[in-house]
Amino acid sequence: MYPDLKGKTVVITGAASGIGKACALRFGEEQANVVINYFDDKQKADANMIVSEIQEKGGKGLIFQGDITKEKDVKLLIKTAVDEFGSLDVMINNAGIENEVPSHELSLEDWNKVISTNLTGQFLGCREALDYYVDHNIQGVIINMSSVHEIIPWPHFVHYAASKGGIKLMTETLALEYAPKKIRVNSIAPGAINTPINAEKFADPEKKEGVEKLIPMGYIGEPEEIAATAAWLASSQASYVTGLTLIADGGMTLYPSFQAGKG
Fold this sequence. Notes:
Blueprint: E1 9-12, H1 18-29, E2 33-38, H2 44-56, E3 60-65, H3 71-85, E4 90-93, H4 108-136, E5 141-145, H5 158-178, E6 184-190, H6 199-203, H7 205-212, H8 223-234, E7 245-248
Parallel strand pairs: 1-2, 1-4, 2-3, 4-5, 5-6, 6-7
């Protein structure tokens, strides 16, 4: 636990499920003010339930429906957080999508949809948070959710891999640009995580085993393990850390085929 996070205002995009939900609950445990962004009405009940859990943990919660690819929605998201809780301290750009398509069959519509959500949406979140931090002289924190596929090529997911590679250099560039103002910008690159988007794949024992073979630690991670990483990055314990992609993948990026010493 990180006492300095108590009472801080944390905005999390795509927070109705998966890693975003785990982050929201973890910051609730830290007794922070948590703004839970969700995309559509189908997620509203889940978002409200998360708020209830946050309040039970001693934090405060607020839900906000909005499309993070739309500039006006992101601006309103930040304004809502500040109007409700008086400030913004931590921005977590978590919302992301993926779909599998052979690259020669990938439509421009599918390309644009993934890039708009995963990269442009994160840029808008970064920009609005930075604008608030600079204007109010706040040494704030930004955490972008990337993926091991900012490093590992992923056939049939070229739009996803491109978006995550973009997040890496966006994070590093913003960290360098705003370091003199003591604004920290980092990202987290999860590996295989047990989230709803992966539920169908991991429900198949053969497919699950195939993924586990790619992970030196031998198991698929849980969203709470990523949330713990986010809490550390947001805390004063990471006060000298900026421009980092913190890889949380059980060793997936360590060339597991060489684990036995062959090659």
